């Protein structure tokens, strides 16, 4: 008793109300599953309220409603018939006993002695009650848990249960897709799916428990009480009523008490498993510190704590079984004693009626045995159901207007942000009065420090969020809040930086952009994304599985598949969030020529400023505000206080280092002197070094499509405003290094690339 008292004190210390005072293993309930801590319904009104929530899923609707409703009616009809047969089974048993007893008495009267065996031998075979025996066997075949009626009922209910499962699953899945990005960012996907799976299973389990277990058992008890009170006398009815009522009440109370231990046991079991997993995952750390004995000791403590809670849970179950059996046996004893008195002294009952009472009460006992388990399961299932129904209550933040507006087909994809302010948390604004316009066919780049609000601009344009703080987002002059989300998102293509692919084939992932596309269109999109040849090098080609989240592909391959998917969609507006960050320079140039066309409006988020020098306009976002805007050349003129210029110079410094910048200064001064002298010289009159540098400068200008700024002074802020060098070879060549050495370096780089491709091929094959 003292040990049990100490354990109860420990349980109290680890209960949710005492979460601030953890035990020696910490508070296991802190990270316990939430369904263990949810309070199930404890009153009849609460139970009825939960049942009412199930009604929409019980009554079938739709084109198959008639057939399913007929199955529901058939199941309830079998349920009613089963209750009637449960009464007939003990009655037929009584009839067999009475008929056999009557025949025995007749046999005794004929022979006048010899006992029961002699009396039975004198009965003619034709007088044996075969019909009553056959009736009893037939009723037993129909009744009971494994009887024909119960089997038919279970099979007829399967389509109804599948309808319920399908309706809930599909409605929940659609509802989850309609919820806002804000909801999904704040919840774990695995947790949501567990809630859905458990909720669906719980509703089906609750329906089966209530309809086919709890309700029939309570109906059988009520019928038995009424039958004995009317056909025998009130005392038999009271015995049955008191016995079964006490049985059910005791079962519910002890089960509730045992559930407390079971919750603690489950929580400690989770803590034990978590301890084992954590220790094995940190296997090397354990070895580093010779902590094997400590880990074993901690795990042993966790196992002992779990086993102690599990012991008391099983003890409570054993006590429940003892009390249940005692109640039933007391009820049987009282009823049998009363029946014996009625037979011997009062002579108003037969032996068959004695057997009837005994068999009927035993039959009720077998059915009532499941009440405890069903009650506990209903508690657990109500918890899971409530959590799922709470998801249904989650409001849909982004709503379509009652009458959506229609965009003009000839619209070119003009994008306007008009004085937009937005905050994920009201205490911390992200965008403040942001305004800009992107003309149809233009390319607009968003640059700025991390956390300045660039990605938020794309999310607002795609209407993952609305901006209740103020302002409007317009496409072709129409506020996007007036558009249907399907129409809005149908005209926008997005290539995120963190590309996620479905665990399907490459072809499936590209076709996701427009499922009705032909194979030729898929191949054309892949070629434009510079990924077709790479796909064809895989053993399975376009049927290659990409793995979960596309992990079998490299980062650059995933980005190009995502770009192909977006190109196949062929939207009017494309949003690129560092979409080419994982590809090399040559591929990036080809991708930009495919993406940045006058046929569509493009908004680009860039961290590598060299990728957006050709943008029609560049917006510098800082602290949620547009602090600078213009072309690359115009922004580079703001050398004294320009945010863009400082970002550019910082990237140069990061790529070249201070020594590289110093060499750039000297080369820049030499270039300036050379350019001045070049006006008086023939085009081919340059020196060897001048020819090499001039040729390379000419190639870069042709590639960029715009003249370079070559005025460089001794001041660091007057360095030439060219794109940062994208590889060490470019930087070294610009510094006047040895050309042969660079060619050797380039060849080594190509060899490295070939080895990398071979590795990729082997990994893809694997």
Question: Could you characterize what this model shows?
Answer:
It is built from 25 helices and 10 strands. The chain folds into 3 domains: 44-393, Up-down Bundle (ABC transporter transmembrane region fold), CATH 1.20.1560.10; 415-641, P-loop containing nucleotide triphosphate hydrolases (Rossmann fold), CATH 3.40.50; 645-762, no CATH class. It has a 6-stranded mixed beta sheet, with helices on both faces. Strands 2-1-4-5 form a 4-stranded antiparallel beta sheet, with helices on one face. The protein is of the alpha/beta class and 766 residues long. Helix 9 (234-281) packs parallel to helix 12 (351-368) and helix 17 (519-528) crosses helix 19. The chain starts with a helix and ends with a helix. Residues 12-21 have a biased composition (Polar residues). GO terms for molecular function: ABC-type transporter activity; ATP binding; ATP hydrolysis activity. Residues 73-380 form the ABC transmembrane type-1 domain. Residues 745-766 have a biased composition (Acidic residues).
Which structural category fits the helices and strands?
alpha/beta
Radius of gyration: 41 Å
**Secondary structure: helix percent:** 55-70%
The CATH superfamily of the largest domain appears as: ABC transporter type 1, transmembrane domain
**Terminal-residue CA separation:** 62 Å
Choose one word for the global shape: elongated
Give the rounded overall mean pLDDT.
76
Provide the CATH top-level class of the largest domain.
Mainly Alpha
Number of strands: 10
Assess the beta-strand content as a share of residues.
5-15%
How does the major sheet shape up? 6 strands, mixed
């Amino acid at each position: 008793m003292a040990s049990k008292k100490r354990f109860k004190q420990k349980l109290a210390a680890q209960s949710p109300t005492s979460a601030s005072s953890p035990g020696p293993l910490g508070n296991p309930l802190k990270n316990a599953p939430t369904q263990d801590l949810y309070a199930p319904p404890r009153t009849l009104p609460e139970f009825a309220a939960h049942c009412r929530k199930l009604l929409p899923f019980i009554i079938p609707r739709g084109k198959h409603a008639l057939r399913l409703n007929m199955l529901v009616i058939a199941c309830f009809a079998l349920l009613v018939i089963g209750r009637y047969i449960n009464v007939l089974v003990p009655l037929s048993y009584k009839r067999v006993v009475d008929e056999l007893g009557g025949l025995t008495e007749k046999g005794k009267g004929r022979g006048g002695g010899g006992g029961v065996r002699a009396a039975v031998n004198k009965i003619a075979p034709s007088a044996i009650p075969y019909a009553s025996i056959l009736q009893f066997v037939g009723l037993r075949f129909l009744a009971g848990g494994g009887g024909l009626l119960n089997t038919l009922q279970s099979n007829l209910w399967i389509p109804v249960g599948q309808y319920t499962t399908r309706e809930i699953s599909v409605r929940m899945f659609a509802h989850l897709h309609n919820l806002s990005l804000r909801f999904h960012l704040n919840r774990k996907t695995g947790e949501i799916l567990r809630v859905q799976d458990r909720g669906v299973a719980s509703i089906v389990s609750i329906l089966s428990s209530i309809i086919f277990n709890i309700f029939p058992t309570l109906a059988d008890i009520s019928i038995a009480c009424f039958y004995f009170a009317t056909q025998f006398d009130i005392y038999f009815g009271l015995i049955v009523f008191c016995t079964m009522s006490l049985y059910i009440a005791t079962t519910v109370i002890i089960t509730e008490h045992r559930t407390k231990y079971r919750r603690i046991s489950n929580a400690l079991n989770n803590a034990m498993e978590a301890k084992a997993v954590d220790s094995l995952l940190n296997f090397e750390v354990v070895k580093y510190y010779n902590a094997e004995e400590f880990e074993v000791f901690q795990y042993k403590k966790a196992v002992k704590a779990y086993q102690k809670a599990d012991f008391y849970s099983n003890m409570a179950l054993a006590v429940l079984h003892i009390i249940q059996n005692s109640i039933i046996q007391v009820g049987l004893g009282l009823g049998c004693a009363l029946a014996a008195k009625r037979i011997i002294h009062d002579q108003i009952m037969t032996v068959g009626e004695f057997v009837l009472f005994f068999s009927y009460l035993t039959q009720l006992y077998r059915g009532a045995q499941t009440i405890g388990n069903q009650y506990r399961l209903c508690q657990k299932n109500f918890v899971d159901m409530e959590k799922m129904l709470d998801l249904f209550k989650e409001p849909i933040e982004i709503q379509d207007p009652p009458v959506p507006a229609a965009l003009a087909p000839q619209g070119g994809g003009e994008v306007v942000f008009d004085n937009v302010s937005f905050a994920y948390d009201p205490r911390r604004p992200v965008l403040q009065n942001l305004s800009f316009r992107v003309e149809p066919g233009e390319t607009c780049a968003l640059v700025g420090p991390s956390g300045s609000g660039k990605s938020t601009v794309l999310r607002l344009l795609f209407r993952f969020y609305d901006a209740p703080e103020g302002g409007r987002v317009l496409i072709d002059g129409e506020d996007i809040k007036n558009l249907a989300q399907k129409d809005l998102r149908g005209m926008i293509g997005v290539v995120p930086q963190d590309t996620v692919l479905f665990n399907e084939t490459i072809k499936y992932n590209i076709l996701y952009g427009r499922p009705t596309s032909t194979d030729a269109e898929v191949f054309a999109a892949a070629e434009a994304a510079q990924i077709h040849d790479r796909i064809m090098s895989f053993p399975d080609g376009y049927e290659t599985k990409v793995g979960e989240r596309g992990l079998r592909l490299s980062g650059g391959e995933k980005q190009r598949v995502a770009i192909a998917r977006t190109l196949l969609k062929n939207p009017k507006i494309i949003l690129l969030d560092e979409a080419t960050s994982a590809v090399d320079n040559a591929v990036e140039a080809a991708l930009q020529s495919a993406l940045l066309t006058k046929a569509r409006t493009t908004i680009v988020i860039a961290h590598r400023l060299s990728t957006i020098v050709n943008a029609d306009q560049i917006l510098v976002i800082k602290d949620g505000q547009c602090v600078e805007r213009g072309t690359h050349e115009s922004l580079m003129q703001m050398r004294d206080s320009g945010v863009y210029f400082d970002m550019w110079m910082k990237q140069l410094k990061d790529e070249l280092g201070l020594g590289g910048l110093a060499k750039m200064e000297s080369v820049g001064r030499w270039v300036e002197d050379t350019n001045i002298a070049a006006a008086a010289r023939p085009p081919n009159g340059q020196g060897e070094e001048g020819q090499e540098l001039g040729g390379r400068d000419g190639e870069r200008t042709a590639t960029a499509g715009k003249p370079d700024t070559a005025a460089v002074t001794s001041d660091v802020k007057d360095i030439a405003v060219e794109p940062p060098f994208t590889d060490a070879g470019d930087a070294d060549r610009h510094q006047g290094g040895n050309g042969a050495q660079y060619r050797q370096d380039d060849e080594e780089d190509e060899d490295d690339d070939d080895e990398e491709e071979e590795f990729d091929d082997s990994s893809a094959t694997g």
